[in-house]
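Review form for a predicted model. The reviewer records the input and the model, then writes brief findings.
Reviewer: anonymous (R2)
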Amino acid sequence: MNGYIRAVGRPLLLVLTLLVCCAAAATPTATIKGTLLLPDDTPVNMTRVSLNAGEQQTYSRLDGTFAFYNVPPGVHVVDVTNHQYMFSQVKIQLVEDSMDAPKCIQYAYPGANKQPIDHPLVLTATATYEYFETRPGFSILSLLKNPMLLMMVFSVGMMFLMPKMMENLDPEEREQMRKQMEMQKDPTKMLSSMFGMGEQEKTIKPVKRGKRD
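Model under review:
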C-alpha cells in the first residue's frame, strides 16, 4: 500500500510543481525605472526608494537612477526617503495588456493635485528639509518688546513731564505734592507721619475730678 502511494504521489507532486511554474511564468511582470535629480539637474545618489511601503526597496545609483524588477500588475506606490530633500510620491498602474506602458501619477505633497508623468520616472526634489530655526538678527522692534526697556523709557518720560505738570498746579497743591514726594523718598518720615497722626487722634484728654468732702 505504501509503495502504491509513493508511486502515485511522486508524479502528482511533479505535475503540481509544473502547474505552479507555468502559472508563475504566465503572469506578466514589468520593470519600474526612474531617476532622482535636484532642481539644477544634479543626480541624487544613495537615496532609498521603496515600492508599496517597503515591499521592495532599493537605492539610487551614482547617476541617480533606480529600478524595481518583476513588478506584477496592479497599482503600486513609489516613495523616496532622503534626509535633506523632499521628493514627490508616484502612483503607478500596471495593466496586464500593456505592461510596457504604465500609467504614472505624481503627487507633489500629500493632498496636492495629481499630475500625470511619463515612464521612466524623472523625480526632481520639490523642497528642502529645515531641521533648525534660523536665529533672528538684531531688530529695534525686539528691543521695544523688552519690558525692562519700556519701564526705563516710562521713568525717563515721567522725569521730564512731572515738572511741567507741577507748573500748572496751585501753590497749595504743589506744596502738598512736594511734601508727599519727600516722604516717599524717605519711608521713615512717611511712617512717622502716619503713626503720629494716629496717636494724636487716639490721645485721651484727662478728666478733672472734684475733691470729696
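Findings: The longest helix spans residues 2-26.
Further findings: Residues 1-5, 198-204 have pLDDT under 50 and may be disordered.
Recommendation: see findings above.
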